[in-house]
Automatic annotation (TrEMBL):
<protein>
    <recommendedName>
        <fullName>Ferredoxin-thioredoxin reductase, catalytic chain</fullName>
        <ecNumber>1.8.7.2</ecNumber>
    </recommendedName>
</protein>
<feature type="disulfide bond" description="Redox-active">
    <location>
        <begin position="61"/>
        <end position="91"/>
    </location>
</feature>
<keyword id="KW-0411">Iron-sulfur</keyword>
<dbReference type="InterPro" id="IPR024707">
    <property type="entry name" value="FTR_bsu_Cyanobacter"/>
</dbReference>
<keyword id="KW-1015">Disulfide bond</keyword>
<keyword id="KW-0479">Metal-binding</keyword>
<dbReference type="Pfam" id="PF02943">
    <property type="entry name" value="FeThRed_B"/>
</dbReference>
<feature type="site" description="Increases the nucleophilicity of the active site Cys">
    <location>
        <position position="90"/>
    </location>
</feature>
<feature type="binding site">
    <location>
        <position position="89"/>
    </location>
    <ligand>
        <name>[4Fe-4S] cluster</name>
    </ligand>
</feature>
<comment type="subunit">
    <text>Heterodimer of subunit A (variable subunit) and subunit B (catalytic subunit). Heterodimeric FTR forms a complex with ferredoxin and thioredoxin.</text>
</comment>
<keyword id="KW-0004">4Fe-4S</keyword>
<dbReference type="GO" id="GO:0016730">
    <property type="term" value="F:oxidoreductase activity, acting on iron-sulfur proteins as donors"/>
</dbReference>
<keyword id="KW-0560">Oxidoreductase</keyword>
<dbReference type="GO" id="GO:0051539">
    <property type="term" value="F:4 iron, 4 sulfur cluster binding"/>
</dbReference>
<feature type="binding site">
    <location>
        <position position="78"/>
    </location>
    <ligand>
        <name>[4Fe-4S] cluster</name>
    </ligand>
</feature>
<feature type="active site" description="Nucleophile">
    <location>
        <position position="61"/>
    </location>
</feature>
<keyword id="KW-0408">Iron</keyword>
Amino acid sequence: MNTSTQTTQATDKNLEAMRNFSEQYAKRTGTFFCVDPGVTAVVIEGLAKHKDELGAPLCPCRHYEDKKAEAEAAYWNCPCVPMRERKECHCMLFLTPDNDFAGDKQEISIEQIRAVTNQY
């Protein structure tokens, strides 16, 4: 397994799984993706990379001393506890309609995600 996550993209399998999860979760919770689709793309890619590396969709927007231990603890696995309990998404992936950064989309294509993440 390649451990260089800075330049390696997520596998297609996990990217599709995280894209599908994100769309379904947004619809189920009445939340919306960020008005900037680049934010949505990068977060979904980060979740998929963590799923590749750790076997769990650990929040990609936080720093961890030990990612493996954090993934096992599950607190920050998406949807994280703050999102499930209070609809607070630090990553700006799932935003309530009253959030200034909420868009009107609950869907994003693989092509949109790859178009953004291929730039890194």
